[in-house]
Each structure stands twice: as structure tokens, then as C-alpha cells.
Design goal:
The structure holds 2 protein chains of 2 kinds. By secondary structure, chain A is mostly beta strands. Chain A is built from no helices and 11 strands. In chain A, the strands form 2 sheets. In chain A, strands 2, 4, 5, 6, 9, 10 and 11 form a 7-stranded mixed sheet that branches. In chain A, strand 4 and strand 5 form a beta hairpin. Chain B is mainly β. Helix content of chain B is 0%, strand content 48%. Chain B is built from no helices and 11 strands. In chain B, the strands form 2 sheets. In chain B, strands 2, 4, 5, 6, 9, 10 and 11 form a 7-stranded mixed sheet that branches. In chain B, strand 5 and strand 6 form a beta hairpin. The mean pLDDT of chain B is 97. Classes of the chains: A mainly beta, B mainly beta. Chains A and B meet through strand 5 and strand 10 of A and strand 4, strand 5, strand 9 and strand 10 of B.
């Protein structure tokens, strides 16, 4: 079955970096993109950005530009999200999600989600 | 950025009764190809989000037919015909039309009265 499995929880100090992985299985990895979404404790969903697994093109949320990098490794069907210069307000659950291309029947939007990775930023 | 505004933010509903959530966008969500990329997601307590509806009114595989989506342009609605206990959670609309970035509504928390 189609699934996304994310790496485990992380605890980081302010100013550090974190890299979260998302391993895909059950579908052709390069036929879809991956979006990353985060959720601070008790808060709503925030879209962070998107990467094409086909050609590596990216689109980042403006507020994270310069601090976030999304990459993929097609040999292992794994997507990565790195966030740098961590602050306490980056504490959140980070989700990866499969994102259909615009020309797919369902269009852009996330139809399969990972289990989430808790990132805690604390001194 | 496109702002998505949901109402109500809290929705107490009696089991078996209908429920309705409104979502309004600050700009039209009609894309140049004629499609409207408005999605609805459900997040049950302690779980990852799950997409229910794509392109305004299309149910994802496995989504019960008591869920329906409607709307056009800037005004959209998610309806549950008869609320069941498993429907408790937070519901989000999300636009995928504007390439400046996807945006979510604030979320509507559905609870059983």
C-alpha cells in the first residue's frame, strides 16, 4: 500500500539545524511531489513548501525562505526537509505528504500523509 | 498570500444531525485551466490529517458519502449529512490554486454535543 514513513523525534537547541526524512513506498516516487506541513502545539496546519520528486523543483513558503531546504533521493524514494537556525517557535509536528501534480485527476493537494515527526527546540 | 477564512471555528453537533462548515478565500480559486483546487481535510485527535475532498466536490477513496463539498469562486462549504462519533476532529480547507503557496483555513473543531 502507499505509505510515507518519517524519521523519529528530534530535540534541538536554538540556532541548530534539523533534517527530517520521509521514505515513500507503494507508488512511483517520481510521479508525484512531496509537500511539507507543520503543526505547532495546539495550532493549525501550516504549509512549508513543496518539491517535485521528478526534477527537484521547489516552492517554499515565503516566511521560511532562506531557512528551509527540501531535497529528494530518487534512488531510495526518500524526501528530506532541513530547517536551519531553529527557534523555539519552530517546535512542531512536521508532516510530509504526497502531492499530486496539477494535471493529475485530483490536482494539487496532499492525499497520503506521513505519521509526523515531533521537533522540539529548547535550550 | 491567499487568506482562507473558516466559520464557525467551533461546531458542537448532536449525533445524527447535519453539520456545515464554511470556507471563504480572499481571491478566486479558479485556476487558468478552469479547475478550482479547493481541498478539505479531517484531522482526528492524535492523527495525521486525511484528505476528504479535492477540487471542491470530489470525495477521496474510502470517504463516506455523508461528506459532501460544494461551492465556487471564493465561497465553499463542507457538509456532513448525519454526524457520527468518528467524525470528531478538526476540519481544514486548503487552496492549491495559487502558486504563491498553499494556504489552510484556521480549522473548525467539530465535537459531539
Amino acid at each position: 500500500q502507499v505509505q510515507l514513513v518519517q524519521s523519529g523525534a528530534e530535540v534541538k537547541k536554538p540556532g541548530a539545524s534539523v533534517k527530517v526524512s520521509c521514505k515513500a513506498s507503494g507508488y512511483t516516487f517520481t510521479s508525484y511531489g512531496i509537500s511539507w506541513v507543520r503543526q505547532a502545539p495546539g495550532q493549525g496546519l501550516e504549509w512549508m513548501g513543496w518539491i517535485s520528486a521528478y526534477n527537484g523543483n521547489t516552492n517554499y513558503a515565503q516566511k521560511l525562505q532562506g531557512r528551509v531546504t527540501m531535497t529528494t533521493d530518487t534512488s531510495t524514494s526518500t524526501a528530506y526537509m532541513e530547517l536551519r537556525s531553529l527557534r523555539s517557535d519552530d517546535t512542531a509536528v512536521y508532516y510530509c505528504a504526497r502531492d499530486g501534480p496539477r494535471w493529475s485527476p485530483s490536482g494539487p493537494g496532499m492525499d497520503v500523509w506521513g505519521q509526523g515527526t515531533t521537533v522540539t527546540v529548547s535550550s | 498570500d491567499v487568506v482562507m477564512t473558516q466559520s464557525p471555528l467551533s461546531l458542537p453537533v448532536t449525533l445524527g444531525q447535519p453539520a456545515s462548515i464554511s470556507c471563504r478565500s480572499s481571491q478566486s480559486l479558479v485556476y487558468s485551466d478552469g479547475n478550482t483546487y479547493l481541498n478539505w481535510f479531517q484531522q482526528r485527535p492524535g492523527q495525521s490529517p486525511r484528505r476528504l475532498i479535492y477540487k471542491v466536490s470530489n470525495r477521496d477513496s474510502g470517504v463516506p458519502d455523508r461528506f459532501s463539498g460544494s461551492g465556487s469562486g471564493t465561497d465553499f462549504t463542507l457538509k456532513i449529512s448525519r454526524v457520527e462519533a468518528e467524525d470528531v476532529g478538526v476540519y481544514y480547507c486548503m487552496q492549491g490554486t495559487h502558486w504563491s503557496g498553499y494556504t489552510f483555513g484556521q480549522g473548525t473543531k467539530l465535537e459531539i454535543k
